[in-house]
Amino acid sequence: MWRVSGCDWKATSSTQIEERLSDAIEGGEVILLHDGGHRHLGVNREFTVSAVDRLVTRYKSQGLEFVTVTGMMEARSPVSVQSATRR
Predict the structure, then answer these.
(1) Model confidence over 60-84: pLDDT tens digits?
(2) Can you identify the CATH homologous superfamily of domain 4-86?
(3) pTM of the predicted model, to two decimals?
(4) How far apart are CA 19 and CA 2, in angstroms?
(5) Phi, psi (rounded to 5 degrees) for 11
(6) Coil, strand, or helix at residue 53?
């Protein structure tokens, strides 16, 4: 399902997450990040939030668009393509 992982569950800083993702993002990727469920392991969700904020700002300024997985799947669905061509 995803092609890029920030490995944010084991990151020691937001910069580490940002650098890992920056090397992999080209456009069209599904990016795996975690919501803090590993808190019992000492993971600080603030790293992920901070990295995502900076990455979204950077890539939006470069013209990339961020969508949900559902939105991306609907846009690529053969049903959506067939419906659009029948109109």
Answers:
(1) 998 888 888 888 888 876 654 444 4
(2) Glycoside hydrolase/deacetylase (3.20.20.370)
(3) 0.69
(4) 18
(5) -70, 150
(6) helix
Other beta carbons less than 10 A from residue 85's beta carbon: 7
Radius of gyration of the chain (CA): 16
| Cα 37 from Cα 33, distance rounded (Å) | 11
Scanning the chain, the segments in alpha helix (DSSP H) are 14-22, 45-61, 69-76, 78-86
| pLDDT < 70 regions, the chain | 1, 36-39, 41-44, 77-87
Q: How far apart are CA 62 and CA 60, in angstroms?
A: 5
End-to-end CA distance of the chain: 31
How is the chain split into domains, by residue range? 4-86
